[in-house]
Amino acid sequence: METSTRETRAQVIAWLDQYRQALRSAEIANDELEIARDAVLSFPGGRLDGMPRSSSHSDKTALSVERLTEAEQLYDDALEHCRRTRMRVSRVISSVSNANQRELLQRRYLLGQSFAAIADCMHFDYRWIRRLHQRALAAAAKAIPEKEKTQ
Predict the structure, then answer these.
(1) N or C terminus of the chain: which is more exposed, having fewer CB within 10 Å?
(2) Under 8 Å between Cβ of 39 and 46
């Protein structure tokens, strides 16, 4: 069964939008990292100054440091995923031959700009940007590798 044009566009948008989703995940991982850092420093035993502490403080410190290490690893993984995703999306956008369509896709899916902001930056009417977006999606759909279209 062949998918409709609307479904195809939705699939292409979802595929292109994966970079912004990866950015959001990295932001959440960064927030978790900040919380873990604050937890290490929030109680008297959290100071890593080499001074001896009571056992309950050292247990809390060890647990907080362990959580901090896990949060750092999650953040590093999120950043790497973000980098790889940006490269894949950039490669597809770069393959679009029309310069205006390519710029629109970059602004929308890499920079996260709204259609109104894109219209303003590119000095086009908002309605024209929406039409250009439909054409850009069709051009980008051809460049998405087949094995990634189903994901």
Answers:
(1) N
(2) yes
